[in-house]
Amino acid sequence: MKGKATSFDIAHYAGVSQSTVSRALRGSPLVNEETRRRVVEVARKLNYKVDKNASNLRAQQSSTLAVLLFEDPTSDESQINPFFLSMLGSITRACAKAGYDLLVSFQSSSNDWHADYAESHRADGIILLGYGDYMDYQSKFERLLESDTKFVCWGANVEGRPELTVSCDNSRGGALVAEHLIELGRTDCAFIGDTSHHSPEFSARFNGFAERLKAHGAHVSERKIATAISTEESGYQATKSLLANNIKFNALFGASDLIAIGAIRALQEAGLRVPHDVSVVGFDDLAVARFCTPPLSTVQQNTTLAGQMLVANLLNLIAKQGVDVASSVLPPQLIVRQSSK
Amino acid sequence: MKGKATSFDIAHYAGVSQSTVSRALRGSPLVNEETRRRVVEVARKLNYKVDKNASNLRAQQSSTLAVLLFEDPTSDESQINPFFLSMLGSITRACAKAGYDLLVSFQSSSNDWHADYAESHRADGIILLGYGDYMDYQSKFERLLESDTKFVCWGANVEGRPELTVSCDNSRGGALVAEHLIELGRTDCAFIGDTSHHSPEFSARFNGFAERLKAHGAHVSERKIATAISTEESGYQATKSLLANNIKFNALFGASDLIAIGAIRALQEAGLRVPHDVSVVGFDDLAVARFCTPPLSTVQQNTTLAGQMLVANLLNLIAKQGVDVASSVLPPQLIVRQSSK
DNA sequence: CGACATTATGACACCGGTGTCAGACGGGGA
DNA sequence: TCCCCGTCTGACACCGGTGTCATAATGTCG
What we know:
Chains A, B: It holds the Pfam family Peripla_BP_3. By secondary structure, chain A is an alpha/beta fold. Chain A is 43% helix and 15% strand. Chain A has three domains: 7-59, 434 Repressor (Amino-terminal Domain), CATH 1.10.260; 64-168 and 303-331, Response regulator (Rossmann fold, 3-Layer(aba) Sandwich); 170-301 and 336-340, Rossmann fold. Chain A contains 13 helices and twelve strands. In chain A, the strands form three sheets. A six-stranded parallel β-sheet of chain A has the order 2-1-3-4-5-11, with helices on one face. In chain A, strands 7-6-8-9 form a four-stranded parallel β-sheet, with helices on both faces. Chain A is elongated, with a radius of gyration of 25 Å. The first copy, chain A, binds a DNA duplex through helix 2 and helix 4.
């Protein structure tokens, strides 16, 4: 047998028509059980596999989802945010369970392909990760909506379409951190992250944090806020600049674990002890949080559940073409370790 | 316009035949420059995208590669080995650069789909990660070879086909660790990992390590070897069992960073100081190695280069159907940090 | 001005399945 | 015996492109 076997080959050897082969292999009730057995047996012997391209073409769908991971172009390209990688793992598993394949693509702002996967029929739907850090994300969303592309997004809100977003309750997470620091009596806080609308997740964390502090009579001074993207280096630099300006604080909230880890390095270099002089809390609960020095207190996001919901909501969207899907906001959980004792 | 535009729609509006549209959009020299401009313009206006399924079906290829990541079923399913994730990042980028899409799939030993992606024409070739830890990998390789599936593999050797493997020079990496410990005068070594053929990468690391020590008159006692898979917990347990048996050593080589990190935890719990009492060295240089307590000395594998070579070799294999591709063994690099000073 | 090469285009078969439709076949009831 | 119905199967159009072949239009040269 040259090349791969086709359904015509199977038909030939099983002594039936090609139509019957197709029906038999896909469990149609129209085919006689005895015939089916014969077809299945021949197919197995010839190691026959349905050609996905042909089947997708005819069926006008691809049984495939795509994940587009947006990377902040200002961050180091060689290191991918481990938080998204861990989400990727759970998305992959959820896809497999649903019988879908998963295409993975790393996007940078330079390319504009966001809808390509769907429009070229390579994927039935798209999952967006990291678009909260995308400068111009609302306009991207508009283009996706316009072309009727099925998509769901982690973190960033799609205006007027809450059902397209799965996110952590960032505001609540920030509040948990505030409560924890209040309990410790450490209310003179610095914040490293981003309070602007460019970064909806970081600013939600900050707002939840600041509001809860305020409710207790404390407040975060503008001077104690430094801007950083979600990398260790950026957190380090931002904290260093605070210290260089001789700004004092007894607690520090990093908008992500990577930022917090960088902040700890800057603090330690400046001779400050964590947590003795400064309590530090991060956000994400990356694996590394458990192992760093000192082990980092942080707010855990349930990436496993998040991945499952992204996939489930997207499939729902594809199946029901746009009917109501509930907004999905996941509860965060505070994990206290040595960095804030 | 209902639904997506097809090349016939473009043809209609541009006043040419469908054939010409196809040629024009794919840069055939057969079409008049003026005609091409018109076609391209109409296509852009109608937001036309080539249907990948149709094009793949006709061309009998998919412009897609698949990554199969094998997970040790005995390890915690929710946490994916960060080493492979980082490789995944560089593979994705290399694919994108070559104009290929990437399918990602996590395999467990229970499913037997290894060749499915290729045989169903979903992917032109397959990249195997983590198959060195696969109990029965040679038989899987045989099936892939038999079905003429194009594939390359990280780490594990395919018998008689060195061109299908890209790997780190694990033996040399082990030797680097040995040399480093010899310099420190720490030759009473423990090894945590796997010295059996079940884990070709770990055992190569061990062999390179042991041989170099032997050449210096030192030697690793059987009693100081404990078996572990590549997780923090497993490294912790293995080290704990050594200590429980009252086995002494002044250096420890963990076959991976995760193992070494678990080992450090076990040592510290037992009241041993790292590196004062025991020098610890790992393997991989995960991001976490820089941040753990104390920062971990380790052997760096160049995942960026590795990913690029896997993709390049695979594409080569697909293009030249089986002609010689050089075996690719990448040089490891010792990174000394506080854990072995 | 006719033979011939060159360029640009259209018609059409084809990739390998899926779904529809028509019809063969056997059995039961009138 | 004839008709009807349910069960099972085959023929065929179709999905949306790609590549081949034939041909029209234009230009070249003797």
